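Problem 12. The chain below contains 151 residues. Write out its predicted structure in token notation.
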Amino acid sequence: LELPLPEVRTAPPRGAMGMVGRPQWVWVPRNQWRPVSRRASAGAVWAQVTATPQRMVIEPGGGLDRISCVGPGRAYDTGRRAAGQSPSCAVTYPRSSAGQPHATYQMTVTVVWGGSWRGSGGAGGTLPPLSTSTRVPVAIADVEGLYSKGS
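Solution.
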């Protein structure tokens, strides 16, 4: 059974600059967050293995603590006002990525899968967790605001 690599999505999207102190949304598309199975047989004897995604683990890079999320994360809806949305899984970077190699944080997103198997003779069981990972470069900028009293 070959497990798919996570097709990680972010908001702001890859290639766009995120901002210090603002959440960087992270999610895996719902169509990828589903069980996968394979069955092998030889004559009347068969065995089937099924893997089901359990959680997503984000290692933000830059020495920041890992984050564990139940489920695939909430997708950012570009058709809605940003103020009306909140992420279910996000990273908030406290510093710019300017000092990082290639001026990006190297975020690693891992999907942890639970597995089980069963066979034609009635046997079956639980398999140890498996994981698949994807590395995503994340560029984060400092944003400075100017404030002046009205004249």
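Discussion. DSSP finds no helices and ten strands in the chain. Students who got a different answer should revisit the alignment rule from Section 12.3.
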